[in-house]
Each structure stands twice: as C-alpha cells, then as structure tokens.
Amino acid sequence: RVVEIDMRSGKQLRTYVVEGAQFLNDIELAGDLCVAITDMATGKIHTICKGDFKAGETARITRAAVEGPELEHPNGIVALGLGKFLVAGWGPGMKSDFSTDRPGRILEVDLAGKRVSPW
C-alpha cells in the first residue's frame, strides 16, 4: 500500500492498494502530479497520478506502468525529468533470500515509451 498524507496537518488522506504488490520499496515524484513506486519482488514500477481516482472511489492500482525482467528487480528510483528515471536494479533472477544471478545495474527507464536501457 501507498499512503497519501497531508504534510501540514499530518492527516492521512487516502490509501492506495497496489494489487499484487509484494515488496513496494521506493517512491519518487514523477512530475508535478504523479509518483512512481518500485516493487522489487515483482519487477514492476507503478504510478499514481492526481486525478486517477474520484473522491470516494476505492484507490486500487491494477496495472504497472512498466514491468519485466529487464528492470532487474527495481529497488531505488530517482527522477531525471518528465517520465524518465534512473533505477537501481537489485539484480536479475532474484531468489527468496534476495540473492541474484548477477549484481544489478543502474538503468534508465522511460515510462512513456516503456523503454529500459543500461545507464
């Protein structure tokens, strides 16, 4: 889950349920009105944007913005600019003990184009 909090009042505004998430790990601003969240276990990056959900609607994220083994189990994420990020991959083939087939790399991810490439 991702929780939206009003920083001035400390009041919890909304909880976003990311369906199928297993290890939500890092979150980063993705422009003025969106955030991107990594799920290291499932190899996905999800986004939540202001206006995605109407008041009173259950906030459920049902699909990833980008996913796949080429993300190498995304761990950290930092924005480069509109829809582009550097992502620290934990490593391909992650096992239940967090060991991997090889060390992860820093990747450049373009969410709009769904492109992942070594940085």
Give structural notes:
- The mean pLDDT is 90.
- The chain is mainly beta and 119 residues long.
- The chain is 0% helix and 47% strand.
- It has no helices and eleven strands.
Largest sheet, in brief, is: 4 strands, antiparallel
Q: Regions with pLDDT < 50 over 5+ consecutive residues?
A: none
Q: What's the average pLDDT?
A: 90
How many DSSP H or I helices?
0
Kindly state the percentage of residues in helix. under 10%
* Shape type: globular
The number of E-state strands comes to 11
Q: How would you write the strand order of the largest sheet? A: 3-4-5-7
As a percent range, the share of strand residues is: over 45%
Radius of gyration: 15 Å
* Class based on secondary structure composition and strand pairing: mainly beta
Blueprint of the fold:
Layout lengths: L1 E4 L6 E7 L5 E6 L4 E6 L4 E6 L10 E2 L4 E2 L6 E8 L2 E6 L16 E5 L4 E4 L1
Parallel strand pairs: 2-6
Antiparallel strand pairs: 1-2, 3-4, 4-5, 5-7, 8-9, 9-10, 10-11
Write a concise keyword list for the protein shown above.
mainly beta; 119 residues; four-stranded antiparallel beta sheet; 47% strand; single chain; 0% helix
Short description:
The chain is 0% helix and 47% strand. It has strands spanning 2-5, 12-18, 24-29, 34-39, 44-49, 60-61, 66-67, 74-81, 84-89, 106-110, 115-118. The chain has a four-stranded antiparallel β-sheet, with no helix packed on it. Strands 8-9-10-11 form a four-stranded antiparallel β-sheet, with no helix packed on it.
